[in-house]
Design a protein that fits this description.
By secondary structure, this protein is an alpha+beta fold. Strands 1, 2, 3, 4, 5 and 6 form a six-stranded antiparallel β-sheet that branches. Strands 12, 13, 14, 15, 16 and 17 form a six-stranded antiparallel β-sheet that branches. Strand 1 and strand 2 form a beta hairpin. Helix 12 runs antiparallel to helix 13, helix 14 packs across helix 16 and helix 16 packs antiparallel against helix 17. The longest helix is centred in the middle third of the chain and has 53 residues. Bound molecules: adenosine-5'-diphosphate (ADP). The site of adenosine-5'-diphosphate has 22 residues, from helix 16 and helix 17.
Length: 602
């Protein structure tokens, strides 16, 4: 009875043990197991009793185990099995799992047996591995990580913390975290700890800390409570990121923003203003505090807001540098309610993981006003030009007929009555004829001048053929003077044949006219230049003094009296107008007494 009772107590004890308990005899046969054994090995005790203990071991380890077992029985004592070894158990379905075993000898009437307490350490092993990995991550983090207790004493310190602050773990662990605080930030610790004790996490808290050498470090801190298994806050971890570089970059960026000539407005994806520069404050008339965080649409007239909001969303779908609203009239709205014309260029910007758009806003009301004024001037100018041309044309055209009458009758008078009146009357008649003919020439010239630019029918003009025509027209003058007109090969050009004819006629005619004596020579040539064809008309005449080389192209400007050389002073003005109509320019190179060369480009 006594023994039975003892046995029952023993079995009860066995069943309450938290581990699987397996009792084996000297031959390695399983004699007794508890319920834990059934549970962790996945089989019933009837299947185990009487079996060799090796059924609980993976096959690959069995033969080795038999040796170990007999070793144990030679010197049986309480001990950990295979300390430092990875031990494995085998479930009845063949799967393996990590175990930990402790052995103790058990004296029985049938000799020394052994009790093996077996623990499934799958979970513990997983946790241990995870902890090791976590520790490695903490160590290799670029962010400084420190642990502290609820009193603010430092309990953990990683490599990055050592690098940032300059303290080694040995130096700092156990000290009050406030050694890292600059004097004016000492109060922060109270507030931070209070929040952490409430279980709150403090994120991205930007502040300054002090390194061992007294250097200040700009930090962004994230402080999280550490809890024990019961969920009580027992301390806090502080992850610190050195944001000095970011701060400096930010400062540089802001400085850059302020130097921009335009108003710069940075908005986030939702269209809220994130940052502006001083020019924005000036342009729109708001202090920046009233802009930051507000929808950017506040800066535009109400009529444009809705359309802008959808444009804005469209922009973030395809963000790239571009001018905004090409061809649209964009308007800005000042704080005083006044509107003004603006021009905007947009560029996308990424910062801190967020997407932004930078708008450079320029007030173009001034430019618009100037543009409008210019357009107005241009219109007025073209109208008055039109009127002038019309006037010159009508005047010269309408004056021609009566003048022809005057000239005709003056000539008739001279022919019929010349020599019949007295000498004085003959002289008057001569004046009358000369003056009326001069006037006719003037009016013809004016008429021609007023017509230049009206011929827009440009065509291919063969200049050699044109020159022949001109020579024919000038034949009388050429023959009378015994002159020689020569030329190099001349190109085919695009232009108004009628005008180019007038141009050559005038230049060659002048060349002949301003070359006294016989055997006048005029030479025409052309060469291709960057400006197009450049023609030259060279004579060996009287030349032109430098101070007159510009003036001669003005209308009615002559260097000589009609007695010396007849003319109207219209010829070169006409030439200039024709050349300009052809997109070119005209000038003269000359040496007084050595001849002149007129150049023009087409
Ligand atoms: P016009 O020949 O009727 O006087 P132009 O306008 O053709 O008027 O010429 C203006 C002036 O330029 C001339 O009066 C003359 O003094 C000067 N000029 C023009 N061509 C020559 C030339 N080939 N040689 C010297 N002087 C010239």
């Amino acid at each position: 009875t006594e023994r039975k009772k003892a046995e029952q107590r023993f079995r009860a004890l066995l069943e309450t043990a938290p581990d699987a308990m397996v009792i084996i005899d000297q031959t390695g046969q399983i004699r007794l197991v508890n319920a834990q054994t059934e549970r962790i090995f996945g089989c019933r005790r009837e299947e185990l009793i009487g079996q060799p203990v090796e059924v609980l071991i993976p096959e690959r380890l069995r033969s080795q185990h038999v040796g170990h077992r007999s070793g144990f029985f030679q010197a049986p004592k309480v001990r950990e099995m295979g300390a430092g070894l990875e031990l494995s158990g085998r479930r009845s379905d063949g799967s393996e799992f990590p175990i930990e075993i402790s052995l103790s000898p058990l004296e029985t009437e049938q000799g020394t047996w052994v009790t093996a307490a077996i623990r499934d350490i799958t979970q513990a092993k997983r946790e241990r591995d995870a902890a090791v990995r976590l520790a490695a991550i903490v160590e290799s983090s670029n962010d400084s990580i420190l642990g502290k207790d609820t009193q603010g004493r430092i309990t953990a310190w990683n490599k990055a913390a050592e690098a940032s602050y300059g303290y080694t773990g040995e130096e700092i662990i156990g000290q009050d975290v406030r050694v890292l605080f600059p004097p004016e930030k000492q109060h922060e610790e109270e507030q931070l700890l209070a929040r952490v004790r409430q279980g709150e996490q403090v994120q991205h808290f930007e502040t300054q800390r002090l390194a061992k050498d007294g250097r200040r470090i700009d930090m962004s801190l994230t402080i999280s409570p550490i809890r024990d298994a019961q969920g009580h806050v027992v301390g806090a971890s502080t992850i610190g990121r050195d944001i000095g570089e970011r701060k400096r970059a930010e400062q540089r960026f802001r400085a850059l923003l302020e130097t921009a000539p335009d108003a710069m407005v940075i908005i986030d994806r939702e269209g809220h203003i994130a940052l502006v520069n001083a020019q924005t404050e000036r342009l729109f008339g708001y202090p920046r505090e009233r802009l930051i965080g507000q929808p950017v649409e506040m800066l535009m007239p109400a009529s444009l807001r809705q359309r802008h909001a959808s444009h804005r969303q469209g922009y973030f779908h395809d963000p790239r540098v571009r001018p905004m609203g090409v061809g649209l009239e964009l308007m800005g709205l000042r704080s005083d309610g006044s509107e003004f014309a603006i021009e905007i260029s947009l560029s996308p910007m990424e910062s801190g993981g967020g997407e932004y758009a930078t708008a450079a806003v320029r007030d173009i009301s001034e430019r618009k006003a100037v543009e409008n004024r210019l357009a107005q001037y241009a219109e007025e100018l073209s109208r008055s030009n039109q009127e002038l041309r019309q006037f010159a044309y009508v005047a010269s055209h309408d004056l021609r007929a009566p003048l022809r009458g005057v000239v005709g009758f003056a000539q008739l008078l001279k022919k019929r009555y010349g020599g019949q009146l007295d000498g004085e009357a003959d002289e008057y008649l001569d004046y009358l004829v000369d003056s009326s003919m001069h006037m006719q020439a003037l009016i013809d010239g004016l008429l021609a001048f007023s017509k230049v630019g009206q011929d827009s029918g440009f065509a291919q003009v063969d200049c050699e053929r044109l020159l022949k025509q001109v020579e024919t027209q000038l034949r009388a003058a050429i023959e009378e003077r015994g002159a020689l007109v020569s030329h190099d090969p001349l190109p085919v050009v695009r232009g108004s044949e009628m005008e180019l004819n007038q141009l050559l006629q005038n230049l060659i005619g002048n060349g002949l006219k301003f070359q006294p004596g016989t055997q006048a020579k005029v030479h025409i040539s052309a060469r291709h230049t960057a400006e197009g064809w450049c023609f030259s008309v060279r004579d060996q005449g009287i030349g032109i003094a430098p101070e007159h080389r510009e003036r001669i192209f003005e209308i009615f400007q002559r260097l000589h009296s009609s007695e010396e050389y007849e003319g109207t002073g219209i010829g070169l003005a006409l030439c200039q107008k024709i050349v300009r109509h052809h997109g070119g320019r005209i000038w003269v190179e000359s040496e007084p007494g050595q001849g002149s060369t007129f150049f023009f480009t087409l």
